[in-house]
Design a protein that fits this description.
Helix content is 38%, strand content 16%. It is an alpha/beta fold. The protein is globular. The C terminus is likely disordered. Strand 8, helix 6 and strand 9 form a beta-alpha-beta unit. It holds the Pfam family Glyco_trans_1_4.
Length: 372
């Protein structure tokens, strides 16, 4: 099977797209064409894939990227059996003549608007109905896969869920140390950027440093640069997921200080699961899915309560037995419940079956099919 995969929003090394889904397809013997912003993100495509470079859609500046994407997807689909797109924006750039088409629904797009500070006020009121209409149209014309069980309620029909699981080594990772806490992932105000900088300030006299591993929104970058300049923390910027997780190994704790915003409440706590997989004790805010996933392998602190996070770090540092148990239990739970290779064959089989069926999508509540 030949698959064209497309994104103009996500980083080409996005863990879900590149290191889970594309890797599963390649391992199953399929050919992949990948349309992604390689040059913008300074990424060299892996030799196993056919790469088509496009501009990246950033902030309010997306028109150029979408125009380029339409042409790139047309090229990528020329001999493909299936097209897999990862951005709602690409629903506006699909070629008229295309193979079986699948939209991977990564997030609740409307709920995510709250965490986009660059949007003007008028857009926050006008975009939600437009986005919901676009989603409904996509459901009638495309196959959908969902990243979250909670997304089911947004759609009229039932769609398969491909969860955001991770790779979990069979052998135990290095034990947690005493002098470093980490955060891995995108950094934004809603993900606790200000709280983490203040936490670094409190931990500095105790000889505990904070490592931030990931890109940051424009509005928090000056704060992070100032904190790094004064020695409060180390901010490494974007690091490919597989390398970032290795950097997290041996940390005293992994931070997930997300705010209580709609897009995070029912989302799979990928960050928490990744810390557990690396044997790193977790400190998280009380988002329901995060608390459920961590199974006590760390500490839960109130939203915005830096003092509570500070105390949780010191308690872990001063209790080696608790730290070791959190590490071992977290790794075991992640291996048993969240190991991506256990789910990868289901994902590949799903795409194979759709491609073989030539993509007739039944319209919910109707008696016709829409060609894709």
């Amino acid at each position: 099977m030949k698959v064209c995969v497309g994104t103009v929003v996500h980083h080409p090394e996005d863990a879900r797209i590149m290191h889970r889904q594309i890797r599963a397809l390649l391992d199953a013997g399929h050919q992949v064409t990948y349309v992604a912003p390689f040059t913008h993100c300074n990424v060299t495509p892996q030799p196993e894939i056919r790469a088509i470079d496009v501009p990246r859609a950033v902030g309010l500046h997306r028109a150029k990227a979408l125009r380029a994407a339409r042409s790139a997807l047309k090229r990528g689909c020329a001999d493909a059996d299936l097209l897999l797109v990862h951005d709602i924006e690409l629903l506006l750039a699909l070629p008229r003549r295309r193979p079986v088409t699948v939209w991977d629904v990564h997030e609740d797009t409307v709920a995510a608007l709250e965490a986009k500070p660059y949007l003007p006020d008028f857009a926050r009121s006008t975009l939600p109905p437009l986005l919901r209409n676009l989603e409904a149209r996509a459901e009638r014309r495309l196959h959908l896969i969902l990243a979250e069980e909670s997304y089911r309620s947004r759609f009229a029909a039932d769609h398969p869920v491909v969860p955001n699981h991770t790779y979990v080594a069979e052998t135990a990772p290095p034990p947690p140390g005493e002098s470093r806490v980490v955060y891995v992932g995108h950094i934004s105000a809603a993900r606790g950027a200000a709280e983490m900088v203040e936490l670094a300030r409190l931990l500095r006299p105790h000889g505990i440093r904070l490592d931030l591993i990931g890109p940051a929104d424009a509005d928090v970058r000056p704060m992070l640069r100032d904190a790094q300049r004064t020695g409060l923390l180390d901010w490494f910027g974007y690091v490919p997921n597989r390398h970032a997780l290795r950097m997290a190994q041996g940390a005293l704790a992994g931070l997930s200080l997300l705010h209580d915003v709609p897009n995070y409440r029912e989302s799979t706590p990928t960050k928490v699961i990744e810390y557990m997989a690396q044997g790193v004790p977790v400190i998280t805010t009380p988002l329901p899915k995060a608390v459920e996933a961590m199974k006590g392998c760390g500490a839960v602190v109130p939203f915005g309560d830096v003092d509570a996070a500070y105390r949780a770090v010191l308690e872990l540092r001063d209790d080696p037995a608790r730290r070791a148990k959190a590490s071992a239990d977290g790794h075991a739970e992640a291996r048993a419940a969240y190991h991506w290779p256990d789910r990868a064959p289901e994902f590949v089989s799903l795409l194979e079956n759709w491609a073989a069926a030539r993509g007739r999508v039944t319209v919910p509540g109707g008696h016709r099919a829409v060609a894709v």
